[in-house]
Amino acid sequence: MRYLRLYLYFLRFSISRALEFRIDFFFRILMDFLYYSVNIALYKILFLHTPTLAGWTEAQAMVFVGAYLFVDALNMTIFSNNLWWFPIFVNRGDLDYYLVRPISSLFFLSLRDFAANSFVNLLMALAILSWALSQYPGTFTLSQLFLFFLLLLNGTFLYYILHMLFLIPVFWTHSTRGFDRIFHGVSQIMERPDGIFVGWSRKIVTTLLPFALIASFPTRSLFEAFSWDILIHIFFITTLFFMILLFLWGFALRFYSSASS
Amino acid sequence: MSKFSWVGQVFSLEIRKHLSYRVDFWSYFLGAVGAQLAIAYFLWKSIFDFLQVEKMQGYSFSGLMLYYLLVPLLNQVIRGAKLGYISEEIYQGSLTRYLIYPVNFFAYKYTAHAAFSFYSSLQILCGLGIFALFFPWPADMSISFISVLGGIFTAFLSGYLFFAISAIFEMVAFWADNVWSLVLMVYYTINLLGGGYIPLSFFPPTLEKALYWSPFPYLLSFPLKTLLGQESLFSWLQGLGVLIFWAFVFTGLLSIVWQRGTRQYTGVGI
Fold this sequence. Notes:
By secondary structure, chain A is an all-alpha fold. Chain A is about 75% helix and about 0% strand. Chain A has one domain. Chain A has twelve helices and no strands. Chain B has a two-stranded antiparallel sheet with strand order 1-2. Chain B has one domain. In chain B, a hairpin with a 2-residue loop joins strand 1 and strand 2. In chain B, about 40% of the residues are buried. The chains are: A mainly alpha (about 260), B mainly alpha (about 270). At the A-B interface, helix 2 and helix 9 of A face helix 2 and helix 8 of B.
């Protein structure tokens, strides 16, 4: 309850700050609109040359595009700003400010800055997803849609965990952005249907680098029969990676030597 | 001392600066380049396997892989080290020191940009070597020593065009409180319309033709095709003409925006 109340304060503060910078607010909305258009255009161009992609038709692929854009928008709204600053805080020694508060430093650092401008884009991403779902010739049951959105929320959380795991090495490397550039490279796995990965590569994208569980598996849950195995696998991997994050966070803090480290 | 002796000094200083951030440099090579290539591999393999074809839009499978390997490497040569290289100076008020230096601001910034491009072009050679180890050399690409040199030379010209375009958007910082998202918009547009996500030959033919009159293909696709040996001498010269035309246009615009922007500049930062 205390954490929820604190988060509401973060929200209020972030919204009032976002409204101070109105041009930036407008530019960010435009930027994400363009990003969404580019992603849709990319799949539209691909489908000019093939009738299916990894077993999905164009309508199914569009639902998948809507799904990962929705996850991206959620991540941009809730976590992205915070994670952008994290390596800078470590290198400048500004992490002290977070460590001396009487709350979880990981919670404070990850959720303090809510991107109010990206919230508008979240609505846009939701509209794209709704459009894609309405274009699909088949029908969905309510329970399928509920599971789909639940798995997308889980996917957003998993995306955040993985991003943090790539940033934490900054405690040791002291590079400007940790392994952020590697993360942005490998995280593109999330933007491709899991069906393109076969054999050992499939094992990797569902376990070691589980980006396929973020949007592709949730989308699959709409088109295929419900499977407990897959559901358990997704939640198990998320929990496991969260525990690894908690452990690594505590471990890394021992190496933090404060200002100008 | 020659009037331009500072160029060599800035160039070498920038190279040394980048050498001190080796983790960032090589993590880009492994992450952005390696991961993008791996993802492209599985995506296109599934398409080629499904369609049972040898070539798509003039590209064999290994030819496409070479294309996707070179996209991020050339992007780095063309785009330089980072975004925000002008807007940050405006926001922090540190532009003032450049205004009182006896050196042209853009010449200074472009020298720093070119130093990073030079440093990054070494990764192209590494990339080609690694590609030769893992993939059969694509018969549809006629890469030669001349085409690599021509490609890198064209990439430097494209780098100037990119520098001029991005500088214009960076200078919106004279009026707006944050231009980060605006500059990223330019990146997205160039990546799609310049052939960064998918070769332009996969676009609808009329759109592809129309695009070649715009500056976008000259910011990635054109130097890339030159490097891959896909441009004849005539088409290369023709493309070079269009590239230089756009470079002049954007240099003119840059000069106008700079003159108006510096009139707005207060020197105290935001």
